[in-house]
Amino acid sequence: MTNTVPGTLRVSNDCIADLAGYAALECYGIVGMAATDAATGVLQLLPAQRLRRGIEVTFDGGSVVVDLHVVLDRGVNVASVSKNLVDAVRFMLRRIAEFDDVDVRVHVEGRRA
Q1: Largest Cα–Cα distance of the chain, in whole Å?
Q2: Contact, 23 vs 88, CB < 8 A?
Q3: Which of the ends of the chain has fewer CB neighbours closer than 10 A, N or C?
Q4: In angstroms, rounded to a whole number, what is the distance separating the alpha carbons of residues 50 and 55?
Q5: Bridge pairing between strands 63-72 and 55-60
């Protein structure tokens, strides 16, 4: 049996980014998160410990906006993987952080060769 506790839940952007990153890594076709070095313009595949560097979390009105910069596996359907990724991240943020309005944007930065 669950009890309702009065109060306000505050979730940090880093926590949201971590949840989104771990949901992304569970999706088929996602190799990892990506970050582009501003100085050199070189794409870098991020290790699991630095997922949040490839994720941007902002708030637009009452909704949470999550921008995911990902690297996809070779030979996968970009549209299918992107849809699955959006659904997985929305589900995770609704279930864990209790956000109702989540806008997930997928930026495919590259594909594994």
Answers
A1: 55
A2: yes
A3: N
A4: 10
A5: antiparallel
The 3-state secondary structure of the chain reads: CCCCCCCCCCCCHHHHHHHHHHHHHCCCCEEEEEEECCCCCCEEECCHHHHHHHEEEEEECCEEEEEEEEEECCCCCHHHHHHHHHHHHHHHHHHCCCCCCEEEEEEEEEECC
Q: How remote is the C-alpha of 24 from its chain's centroid? A: 6
**Interacting residues of 19 by C-beta distance below 8 A, sequence separation 6+:** 89, 92, 93, 96, 97
**In this predicted model, which residue has the larger pLDDT, 3 or 103?**
103
Burial 41-55 (b: 16+ CB within 10 A, else e): eeebebeeeebbbbb
How do residues 8-56 score in pLDDT, each as one tens digit? 777 788 999 999 999 998 999 999 888 876 666 667 777 777 778 889 9
